[in-house]
UniProtKB/TrEMBL annotation:
<feature type="transmembrane region" description="Helical">
    <location>
        <begin position="113"/>
        <end position="132"/>
    </location>
</feature>
<protein>
    <submittedName>
        <fullName>Membrane protein</fullName>
    </submittedName>
</protein>
<keyword id="KW-1133">Transmembrane helix</keyword>
<keyword id="KW-0812">Transmembrane</keyword>
<feature type="transmembrane region" description="Helical">
    <location>
        <begin position="51"/>
        <end position="68"/>
    </location>
</feature>
<keyword id="KW-0472">Membrane</keyword>
<feature type="transmembrane region" description="Helical">
    <location>
        <begin position="75"/>
        <end position="93"/>
    </location>
</feature>
């Protein structure tokens, strides 16, 4: 039971964070627009400002589903990759660690106090744990895909 929970609880946490963010990414919320327009402008890839939320949201949804299949190692590795990007963009771009919060008409009403960044770090840690756990297991989905490296 303990062994099963050590895999299931981090997977549930990752999926919870990813799935609850889908509404924001797919509905074009002001927070999402701020994040992806900032990154699109900074990178020079204006398409990322328009389509990045859909791209990242789709990847998060796929990772969330995979975490509860026999391909859970792939889902865990995807979560590490997605969150590595998020952490990088928070730390090394104009985006910053503390995100603004907006009301229903798009006016900034405060900040999240860095909560989005903290959640990204926690998801990253859970993803690394699950990736290493899968890699070390006898039936590793990652090693099966990568040809037994």
């Amino acid at each position: 039971m303990k062994l099963r929970l050590s895999k299931t609880l981090p997977a549930i946490f990752i999926a919870f964070v990813f799935v609850q963010s889908l509404f924001y990414k797919f509905s074009g919320s002001y927070e999402t627009q701020f994040i992806f327009k900032t990154l699109g402008g900074w990178s020079g890839f204006t398409w990322f400002g328009d389509w990045g939320a859909y791209l990242i949201g789709s990847a998060e949804l796929i990772a969330s589903i995979l975490l509860f299949t026999r391909w859970h190692g792939v889902g865990a590795l995807m979560s590490v990759g997605i969150m590595s990007g998020a952490i990088f963009f928070h730390l090394f771009t104009p985006l910053g660690v503390v995100m603004p919060e907006f009301n229903e008409v798009g006016e900034m009403i405060g900040t999240d106090g860095g909560l989005l960044f903290i959640m990204a770090c926690l998801v990253w840690l859970c993803g690394v744990y699950l990736t290493l756990r899968d890699w070390r297991s006898v039936n590793s989905s990652l090693r099966n895909i990568l040809g037994g490296i």
